[in-house]
Amino acid sequence: MKISFKHMILLFFILINVFIITKYKNNKDQNKILKIGITQIVEHESLNNARQGFINELKNLGYEDGKNIKFDFHNAGGDLSNCESIARKFANDRPDLILAISTPSAQAAANVIKDIPILITAITNPEKSNLVKSNLTPCTNVTGTSDLPPVSKTIELIKKLKPNVQNIGILYSNIDVSPSYQAQIADETIKTLGLDSKVATVSQLSEIKQVAEKIISECDALYVPIDKITAAGMPFKNSSRK
User: Fold this and answer.
1) Which of 26, 92, 173, 182 has the most beta carbons within 10 angstroms of its beta carbon?
2) What is the pTM assigned to this prediction?
3) Rounded CA gap, 237 and 153, in Å?
4) Tens of pLDDT along 74-96?
């Protein structure tokens, strides 16, 4: 079943409400400060908006930072080893809830934390990322929302906007399962349309400019999945376009 963006956001906030109600339904200590750890793969507008939306909704529910809730936010700067360090810190600090923004951040947290609720967002396929048993029935301490876009329709739109296109490039970060999954769908769609594809991957921000320049010179059009690492380096990619 496909879920619209509005429904996805609604579901995310419903999950927040469920957690708050469950956590404090029978709590006699109304003065207890709720501790929430937030881990994020990289600084980017879309990820920042997800984090701020989470904080804003908690405020709407009556939970304000410094009063009855405390946020512990950490940004990994695009480094997987930092994701793991953040996860280990949370495992030791024992927050009441962890918000993991992006697949690498969620995977790192889920690998070492099995008894603290982990709420995920900005993740394409939690099941294929081994975060849950099933996207319909998680059966783990992890739950949240998916941001899987209409990949096939996007490729079809490229063909519609540029009828003479013959070769479509795909550029994404190979340190995240989510863009890899989208790239696979894109590649299959490109071949179904009878076109050629060329795939290029990056593993860190500093590689984007060089790799982008090369693939752009070899293709008629470029497809970039929802990818936090590549998106964070978007200024480099844009500057390479002729």
Assistant:
1) 173
2) 0.74
3) 23
4) 999 989 999 999 999 999 999 99
Q: Decide: residue 95, CB within 10 A, 0-12 exposed, 13-18 middle, 19+ buried.
A: buried
Tokens read off for 220: 């008629």
Q: What's the whole-number mean pLDDT along residues 168-181?
A: 90
- Rounded to an integer, what distance in angstroms lies between the CA atom of residue 78 and that of residue 208? 13
